[in-house]
Amino acid sequence: MTQKIKTQKIVKDEKRKGKMQLIDLKNVLPVPVEDKENQEFTFKSWTMKEEKKIAKMKSSRTTMGEFVSNVFGLMLDTLCGENFQDKKEEEKIHILNQFDLPNIIYMWIYLRYDVLGPEIVMDVGCPNCGKLNEKRIFTLDTMDVTVKKDDVKRVSDYKLHKIIKFNEEIVESLRIRITRWDSMESAKNEVAANEGLMKELIFNSSIIGINDSEGAIPELNKVIENLTKRDIEGLSAFISKHNGGPTLTLEDDCTSCSNKYFKFLNWSYEDFFGQSSLPEK
Ligand SMILES: [Zn+2]
After folding, report:
1. In this structure, is residue 175 part of a structural domain?
2. What predicted TM-score, i.e. pTM, was given to this entire model?
3. How far is the CA of 129 from the centre of ligand 1 (A)?
4. In the chain, which residues have pLDDT < 50?
5. Ligand 1: distance of its center to the CA of 127 in Å?
6. Which domain holds residue 171?
7. Angle, vertex CA 235, rays to CA 229 and CA 238, nearest 5
């Protein structure tokens, strides 16, 4: 007798709306993977066996990117409706590296929601008065996720507010693609908590050309170094919008100055999966 394989539920394109909450999107990738009809992912259950393996991964000195990829290598049961666990280790890492960054970050947040529930506790510093607001509770299920349609535009041009000139080269616009996960390969742990470092890394991986054309840029780091504050913020917002996926911003009211403030969500392991991230019952 053969076991029946459970049919996966497929979210059809017309049901995919621009902005959704995690609770509605559930285990479906926000940016469609090309040539795949099924955009679902599922995780194995996280038991003591997985806990011990993940603790071991954490102690081996890997980068944040490698660590997340290794956790998915262990925990992802299916990806795009296909069995993920019967793939070879190097194949798993290769697939994940080519994945769009917003999809990996979304799966990471979903894994946290799946195994520990929607409530997450964090200490967040108020940017207005400097007060450290301790043990604030945020909910992951209401997190906004920008969902892309199947015909997602993968490449776009950003027009610079201030033209960059160097070595007789004039840069007026930057061509960007959806950021790939492999950009995080070199990311040290502190990057997940540092918005500036994250921006630099994402710029490096997303810019694929200048002045409305594609091609290697010999001195990309010089271009990035010469971006003005206005273009750093402009390009960052442009890439975020282009990438889609989860909104990595927390919204809170300060307990001291009562101002509403927004903070970058720290998705590193300890802050996300550690004991301190769980509300006291
Ligand atoms: Zn404050």
Report:
1. yes
2. 0.86
3. 4
4. 1-14
5. 7
6. 155-246
7. 140
